[in-house]
Amino acid sequence: MEVLDFITLLVIMAAFFTLINVKWLRLPSTIGLMLLALGLSMFIIVGEWVFRTLNELATNLMTEYDFSKVLFQVMLSFLLFAGALELDLRKLGEEKWPILVLATVGVLISTFVAGIAIYFLLPFVGISLDFIYCLLFGALISPTDPIAVLAMIKKTTVSKNLESQIAGESLFNDGIGVVVFLTILAIATKGVENLQVLEVIELFTVEVLGGLALGALLGYLGLNLLRIIDNEHTEIEVLVTLSMVLGGASIAEMLHVSGPLAMVVMGLFVGRKGRTKKLEDAAGEYVYKFWHLMDEAMNAILFILIGLQVIVIKYETDYFYAAGIAIVIVLLARFIGVSVPISVMRIKRKFPPYTIRILTWSGLRGGISVALALSLYETANFETRIVDIIITMTYCVVLFSIVVQGLTIKKLFEKFNVVNNEERKTPEIAAKPVLKKAK
Questions:
Q1: Which residues cross the membrane (predicted)?
Q2: In angstroms, rounded to a whole number, what is the distance separating the alpha carbons of residues 1 and 145?
Q3: What DSSP designation does 156 have?
Q4: N or C: lower Cβ tally within 10 Å for the chain?
């Protein structure tokens, strides 16, 4: 199938599944679309003996178009830039230290906790993995997925500061997490004895600082260019932002720096929330509407692809036992990765009640973890069995995260009473004039 035909098929599925979800399922968009795609995949797999041609076609299609390449080379830059545009820069500044610590220290703690626990617990289900592969799984599953997280919190009325913490951490720990994954992958590929400590530090530093610097440079240039352009010339403003994203992604790949971090920083430069009036009006309203549309459309396609990935998963009973263990371990690792930094920061900083529980449960995993796991197939010296185990565990953790955690986040917010106070007051303020008029 040609690339254009594949894109057409995904768009048609997105439109059709969205209609079904809106009319009948009425679930959050990302969850509804993924479940419908997952249902279609299960129908194709179970009905293989009847629809053999359909099964072969679907399998060939999902293997022909590498999910990891589609996400990292096409979709991720657009989604991260669009997500960063929606953040309130002022609130983000107020929460900068919790975000920074959780996105770095929290991810590293979670990576090692998950890796160590997997290493010692998998033998109980008859699976044995070398420690470096367990650590690799810990690295790819530890960063929360900004695409899934942002899609979920948009539907809630959580307080702005907590929203900034959750969204900001997910955007930045994604970039950090990918760098940690690449660092551990380099160790696993070359061997510990062939990789020097300075080489690891250099890889990590260049990726992170290089990505931040590139994003700041392009964001600054793009913002000033948008300020020069009259807001009536919407098409030019949209083309400028598109050029920033596409050009920034290509430059990041060429310079071997973190593209995800560059996209997030660029989005923060161009975003209008929490800015002065002068900078807020740098880009016209239609620029933000365009990126909102891009965000919604690509989110729909991404979660359909996640649902369809079940077609290429290897089915071994012990792999699913390992996945059950992995779900519990990942939640525990997330809890420790959040609770340790926040407990230390509480010495000098106040946090709302239940912050640790909320951040633990709202740390959704998504397409980025699946893409990183699938990219291991390209690593020449990895056994196929090892990759299959890691992919199965990753996929099951992602499904649990999006469906179970995603569907219960709003109830958790309501239970812990962390909704936006401003939104609570609105009905009361609006009610007073109505009562006066009635009198």
A1: 6-24, 31-50, 70-87, 99-121, 127-150, 171-188, 208-229, 258-275, 296-313, 319-337, 358-377, 389-409
A2: 30
A3: S
A4: C
Distance (Å, whole) CA 148 – CA 110: 19
Query: What is the distance between the alpha carbons of residues 29 and 23, in angstroms, rounded to a whole number?
Result: 12
Q: How far, in Å, CA of 368 to CA of 354, rounded?
A: 27
**Do the beta carbons of residue 427 and residue 355 sit within 8 Å?**
no
Ordered DSSP codes for 17-41: HHHHIIIII---HHHHHHHHHHHHH
For residues 430 and 426, what is the distance between their CA atoms, to the nearest angstrom?
A: 6
Output the six-digit token pair for 244: 């920033």
- Closest of 320, 328, 331, 333 to residue 393, by C-alpha: 320
Burial of 23 (0-12, 13-18, 19+ CB in 10 A): exposed
Domain extent listing, the chain: 67-424
Mind listing the pLDDT tens digit for each residue in 281-324? 888 899 999 999 999 999 999 999 999 998 888 878 999 999 99
State the average pLDDT over residues 378-406. 91
How far is residue 321 from each of residues 125, 142, 209, 334, 395, measured CA to CA in Å? 7, 20, 40, 20, 13
Percentage of the chain modeled with pLDDT above 90: 60
Distance from C-alpha of 302 to C-alpha of 200, rounded to nearest angstrom: 32
| Burial (CB count <10 Å: 0-12, 13-18, 19+), residue 210 | middle
Measured CA to CA in angstroms, residue 272 lies from 64, 141, 168, 238, 278 at distances of 40, 32, 16, 15, 10
pLDDT value, residue 428: 36
- Enter the tokens of residue 353: 């009640």
Does residue 421 have a pLDDT over 70? no
Which has more pLDDT, 229 or 204? 229
The alpha carbon dihedral of 296, 375, 306, 407 has a sign of negative
* Under 8 Å between Cβ of 405 and 364: yes
d(CA 414, CA 354): 12
Let me know if domain 67-424 sits in CATH 1.20.1530.20: yes
C-alpha distances (whole Å) from 104 to each of 92, 224, 235 are 16, 31, 38
| Side-chain half-sphere exposure of 437, counting CA atoms within 13 A | 5
Residue where the block lists tokens 């692809």:
305
